Amino acid sequence: MEAPVQLSFPLPRSLDTRIYLHLTVKPKAIVVLLTTASVEEAASPTPLGSFVYALPDRYNPAQPLSTPLCTVEPTLEFATRLAKLLARRTQRPTYVGNSISFASTGLGGTVEEEMEAFKKVVEVALSQLQPVVESAQAPSDGVRASPV
């Protein structure tokens, strides 16, 4: 998948705001850019927010390493969690830019609203990354499992 994928889906618990996801998969890395916009704001640019780099740790595969490259405090934790999760699942270095705003959600961005949005972003991103995830789970030593 060399061409970027651009998707939008509703921000959970919000009336007219959508999450916009831009996904680029290269042979050596994945880039995910996220933002939110209402119908009125869709044509205007939004600031970058946080930008995080995560890579799989071959010595501790359950804990990818990450470093923030650009930090904006309200968006940093979301970007870091997403970058680590995608790096762990795909076994590829992952860059995540996040400028999602929860101001338009029903309660203004509670933990539950943020978690619901995170789950939706993960669901959509992993559905697009399914071939990459499957290749990461395949045996890398050239030996294939025989069917039982």
The profile of the biggest β sheet is: 6 strands, mixed
The residue fraction in helices comes out at 25-40%
Uncertain parts: none
Structural class: alpha+beta
Using the coordinates shown, work out and report the CATH topology.
Answer: Ribosomal Protein S5, domain 2
- Between the first and last Cα atoms, what is the distance in angstroms? 31 Å
Strand content: 25-35%
Q: How many helix segments? A: 3
Our Rg estimate from Cα atoms comes to 16 Å
- Shape verdict: globular
CATH class designation: Alpha Beta
Q: Name the strands of the widest sheet in spatial order.
A: 1-2-3-6-4-5
H-E string? EEEEEHEHH
| CATH architecture verdict | 2-Layer Sandwich
Q: What is the typical, i.e. mean, pLDDT? A: 89
Find the count of extended strands (DSSP E, 2+ residues).
6
Number of domains: 1
